[in-house]
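Re: the 557-residue chain
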Amino acid sequence: MADHVASSVVDAREQFDYDIVIVGGGPAGMAAAIRTRQVQPEASVVVLDKGSEPGAHILSGAVMDPRAIDELLPDWKQLGAPLIQPVTADEFLFLGAKRSMRTPSFLVPRCFRNHGNYVVSLGNVVKWLGQQAEGLGVDVFAGFAATEVLYDRAGRVKGVATGDMGLGRDGERTDAFQPGVELRGKYTIFAEGARGQLGRQLIERFDLAEGRDPTSYAIGLKETWEVAPAQAKPGLVVHTAGWPMDGGTFGGGFVYHLDGNRVSLGFVIGLDYQNPWLSPFEEFQRWKTHPAVRAHIEGGRRLGYGARAINNGFPQSLPKTVFPGGALVGCDAGYLNAARIKGSHAAIKTGMLAAEAACAALREGRSSDELTAYPEAFERSWLQAELHESRNFKLWFKKGAVVGTVMTGVEQWLMPKLGIRTPPWTLHGKQPDHSSLRQAHQCDPIAYPKPDGKLTFDRLSSVYLSNTHHAEDQPVHLTLRDATVPVSVNLRTYAGPESRYCPAGVYEFLRNDKGEDRLQINAQNCIHCKTCDIKDPTQNIVWVAPQGGDGPGYDSM
């Protein structure tokens, strides 16, 4: 347990001192906490999770590669880890508007082969990892959002502060006001997931992205269904390419059959898409109507919905992951294998590597310096080799679907057959996702069909299934650098793309009594996907964490 320092200053924040402070209770953060206590049982460790409980904000497909968890907790099966359903079969489909073509098994690229992996609810896995961490003596504080990085006089990271509770919508204190607390550590590990609020600040402050390619993202949308036993095919993993995406837009779908007559399905769209009329949510709903997809869920019952921005994960865009006093791990840094559509094993592995470097530093009596042993260990790891092999995957698709498909076949099927594991060339990205939108008059509007309420649905009924809750009387956490830009630039030039790229109906353009356009922000709908923070063409929207515990509750996902 940490040392507690009480302040004598009225309303000053309380301070808790730890050896290791971990921001984010996902697979990377929990792995870092567990590994620290395994290597150095006397070290004091705390994990801060902004969700109401560990796993509440976790959203992923997911097919999990157990390689990293095998290393972290070799006896995970005996400990009851919720990796229950092994993959039993893989299918890869190319979709046309009405038909589909199945890729013969012998032609399926290595990145889409999942033998030995498990179909899981990653939220349940993270909840279980939290229990293992607590069993090792880690303090896990759920419902606390870290909103500020703390620095010492030399500019080194010395911890984080949680957000104040009980502020009204106007930013003033209410009767329920409680100041945030400071958690100070000899080292602070940031594991917030893709586009982390504090991770982004650290990358800018320490110039961690200097000399790297721009980070590329996608939005992933997901639903979980309960289907009839006759439809259930436990362990079946299906991936799709083609319809409804056009040849210039990166995207594809997945259908994963879990145990218990449940099916997880979703759609991923690269946030470098060009047409401002495109709506990822409607594309997902439309995709479900394809005969090859609807056959898996038709007649079933939708249980849950969610969406999340994800890294496209190529090593050329990875920032420097260490700085004085801390480190970035998991998707906060960008560790994800986009070719395999997997990131949980990378998150766990990088969390372990950072923890091992921090423990070595603590044993040497060090603090607040750069944990250079962490990136050095990554360069020697199997994870680096894996990511290096697939480093060009997303970048080929920036050249169009045909080129991307052909070159994925060359790099992920043909070359391995010839004994060449990694291509001798490296591609580079040059354009950030937010700069890719074309002006609205340059693109054709897209007419989406109305939802039928049986197979396809609207945003608001979907948000309801995400169990999202935000206290009404608190500052809006979707902030604008300039309140005039949404109308003067986004609406006039791009036809208001935020009203379409948001998968939760947060942004609406309305008319006031004078007939003037205005942007309404329905912050209570936000499911914390962070797409707006990434895709806004003027980078005017900044996502910040609401008060701790608020947001989605992905219990059924």
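Confidence is low (pLDDT under 50) at residues 4-10.
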